[in-house]
């Protein structure tokens, strides 16, 4: 027991060092900043989440609603990626940055340790299990998503859930439903599922997919294994072609798919290094990247597995066709294939469309189609594929127990994996980066600011030109703002902004600063003022001396106000 505790302590210590290494320079800014692009990105929303969560608790407001943005209606935070888990953890700290950043670091460490324990349960090899933990927690996928999508790196519950799931049920019985063989692990599964919901609904769905796929495998595999190769091939062809013939008309006729990311998931993208790779120069791979991303070079299109993982995958594929893989890998192979298909709803290779994946039907199933970004299933592939490799490597070592297979090659693989997964040093935003004008907003006795440009954004719709960095700046000035961004915004909010003639004009001026506006009537101005109650207008440098500023001056006609100018910004503040 003491030896096991000591081993686990050493393993966790090494994973802690790797977490510091991979997220550098976050460690030296834990208390004052966060990882983010320097212009516009989703990462500002997460420090804002912590601020809103604490603000709602302090003011006895509903936890999952806010009127600090999208005023006056406000927004529902249930599907925002609100992360009440991280926000609750941050309650332990007065400093919001510290709470958020420590929570992220903790998830990297526990994701690795959880995958290590899962692998130890399956193959009993410490070195292999350590590599699997590192491969999952510090994958190229997660290192890229850390630049903007914090929810997608909060994966600690995933390996622990799978470990408890495997210990909780026996799927080998003749009964249709699996038999619970450990109530303790069954209840732990429920607890871990709940904790996953508190972090990320994508990960929650992936655990559901894993559970159903594992169940399906043990129900159908006994029949599948007895089929001839011709029958297996025929059934797969019928499945793929049949589902293609169902899915394609749904796409053509515009059935609701919640804005599914059909353009993501090109097979070629698995082989192209991500933009933030420290080792590889992505720019040198043009025009290959243009083909792989089909002209849409963004975060969701980048699926690089790592050449170390790809190399291992090729070895596994070869041995799969040679029937050399341990029988224990069968359910893991099935689940890995499912997640590959989920990541590629349209199977492309390069610029060539091949066929719709059968799993693409999920984009048309209500509720389930809220999982719009199919490429995010790569996070599961980077756990299941190394697990398969771990089984195979443990079998190889058992057959050839020498230094080369037991130590030299695993250590070499680990070293190369660390080098190729290492991202470029992350850009951080700190309070000192905020324009000085926001201090003036904070000191104002007024309560609500309209920032030009303004707008309303969510994952499906976009009007105006709202910059998500305003969420970060709101944590400094703490005033309510019109406009805003949430992952899901109700149609009622969009309609309220577009139906008000003055707000609609402000949105059009946000999209084009010199949009030719009409002078509003006094009744329109009165309606606007009574609806939105704006008592400050902050104009950004690119909108100074444009029609946007002229229109705001029209709205202020006859009112008493003061003007503050700093660093090219201009603040109109009603008295």
UniProtKB/TrEMBL annotation:
The chain crosses the membrane at residues 12-30, 100-118, 127-144, 150-169, 176-197, 203-221, 233-252, 303-321, 330-348, 354-371, 403-419. The keyword Transmembrane applies. Keywords: Membrane, Transmembrane, Transmembrane helix. This is Glycosyltransferase RgtA/B/C/D-like domain-containing protein. It comes from Cytophaga hutchinsonii (strain ATCC 33406 / DSM 1761 / CIP 103989 / NBRC 15051 / NCIMB 9469 / D465). The lineage of its organism: Bacteria, Pseudomonadati, Bacteroidota, Cytophagia, Cytophagales.
């Amino acid at each position: 027991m003491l030896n096991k505790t000591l081993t686990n302590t050493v393993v966790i210590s090494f994973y802690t060092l790797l977490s510091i290494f991979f997220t550098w320079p976050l460690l030296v800014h834990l208390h004052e900043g966060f990882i983010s692009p320097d212009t516009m990105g989703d990462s500002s929303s997460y420090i804002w989440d912590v601020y809103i969560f604490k603000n709602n608790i302090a003011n006895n407001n509903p936890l999952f609603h806010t009127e600090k943005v999208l005023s006056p209606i406000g927004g529902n935070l249930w599907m925002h990626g609100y992360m009440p888990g991280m926000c609750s953890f941050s309650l332990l700290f007065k400093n919001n940055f510290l709470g958020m950043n420590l929570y992220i670091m903790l998830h990297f460490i526990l994701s690795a340790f959880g995958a290590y324990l899962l692998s130890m349960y399956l193959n009993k090899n410490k070195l292999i299990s350590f590599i699997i933990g590192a491969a999952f927690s510090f994958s190229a996928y997660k290192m890229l998503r850390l630049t903007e999508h914090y929810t997608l790196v909060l994966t600690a519950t995933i390996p622990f859930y799978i470990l408890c799931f495997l210990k909780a049920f026996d799927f080998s019985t003749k009964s249709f439903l699996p038999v619970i063989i450990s109530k303790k692990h069954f209840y732990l599964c429920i607890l871990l599922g709940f904790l996953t919901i508190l972090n990320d609904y994508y990960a929650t769905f992936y655990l559901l997919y894993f559970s159903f796929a594992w169940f399906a495998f043990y129900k159908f595999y006994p029949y599948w294994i007895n089929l001839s190769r011709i029958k297996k091939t025929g059934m797969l062809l019928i499945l793929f072609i049949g589902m293609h013939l169902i899915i394609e008309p749904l796409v053509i006729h515009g059935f609701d798919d919640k804005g599914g990311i059909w353009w993501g998931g090109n097979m070629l993208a698995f082989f192209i290094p991500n933009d933030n790779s420290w080792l590889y120069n992505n720019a040198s791979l043009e025009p290959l990247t243009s083909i792989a991303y089909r002209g849409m070079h963004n975060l969701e299109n980048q699926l690089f597995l790592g050449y170390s993982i790809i190399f291992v995958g090729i070895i596994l594929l070869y041995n799969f066709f040679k029937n050399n893989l341990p029988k224990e890998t069968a359910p893991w192979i099935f689940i890995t294939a499912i997640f590959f298909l989920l990541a590629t709803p349209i199977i492309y290779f390069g610029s060539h469309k091949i066929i719709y994946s059968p799993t693409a039907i999920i984009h048309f199933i209500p509720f389930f189609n809220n999982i719009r970004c199919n490429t995010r299933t790569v996070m599961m592939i980077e756990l299941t594929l190394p697990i398969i490799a771990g089984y195979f490597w443990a079998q190889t070592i058992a057959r050839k127990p020498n230094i080369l297979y037991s130590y030299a090659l695993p250590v070499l693989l680990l070293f190369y994996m660390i080098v190729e997964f290492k991202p470029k040093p992350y850009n951080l935003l700190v309070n000192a980066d905020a324009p000085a004008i926001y201090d003036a907003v904070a000191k104002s006795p007024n309560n609500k600011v309209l920032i030009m440009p303004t707008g309303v954004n969510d994952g499906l719709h976009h009007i105006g030109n709202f910059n998500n960095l305003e969420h970060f700046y709101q944590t400094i000035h703490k005033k309510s703002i019109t406009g805003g961004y949430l992952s899901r915004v109700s149609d009622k909010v969009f309609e309220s902004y577009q139906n008000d003639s003055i707000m609609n004009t402000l949105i059009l001026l946000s999209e084009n600063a010199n949009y030719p506006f009409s002078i509003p009537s006094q009744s329109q101005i009165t309606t606007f003022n009574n609806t939105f109650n704006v008592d400050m207008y902050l104009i950004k440098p690119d909108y100074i001396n444009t029609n946007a500023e002229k229109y705001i001056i029209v709205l202020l006609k006859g009112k008493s106000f003061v003007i503050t100018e700093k660093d090219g910004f201009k603040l109109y503040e009603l008295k």
